[in-house]
Amino acid sequence: MSKKATYIFPFIEFVVRDGKKVSPYVYVGLNELDGKVVVNQFVKDLCDYHQVGYDKVMGRCRENAYVELRQVIMYVLREYEKKTFKEIANFFERDHATAVHAVKKYTHLLKLGDKKATEIFSTAKRLYLYQKLYYGKQENN
Fold first, then answer.
1. Residue 53 half-sphere exposure, CB side, CA atoms within 13 Å?
2. Alpha carbon of 20 to those of 16, 69, 107, 108: distances in Å?
3. Which tops the pLDDT comparison, 134 or 131?
4. Which domains does the chain possess?
5. Average pLDDT in the chain
């Protein structure tokens, strides 16, 4: 790991690492964490938050509430964890085309500003960022 240099100006703090500055308007060091989110725990916590069964989300249930949550998880894993479609599909025990469809669908819904999709995504994103910080700190200690 490279050495961190912190410079403090009035009301602004930023971190310089490998010649890059991290914006003071995000969590300091967020982009520099080496830790990965524990995917199972992320899915369980998201299911608990939305009060749906983990087994139903991971299983073959095709009810709308479970499908939407499953698709947003696939989107988050692709966009933020940089997982391949094959890795995502294997995690959910599905074909890679299912993961491709989920990511395309949520990309489209978010661009359109769909209210329900945006709400589900915002909770998933907040939980993802929280876990990224938590597990990143745990692994770096």
1. 7
2. 5, 35, 29, 32
3. 131
4. 1-32 (no CATH), 39-140 (1.10.1750.10)
5. 79
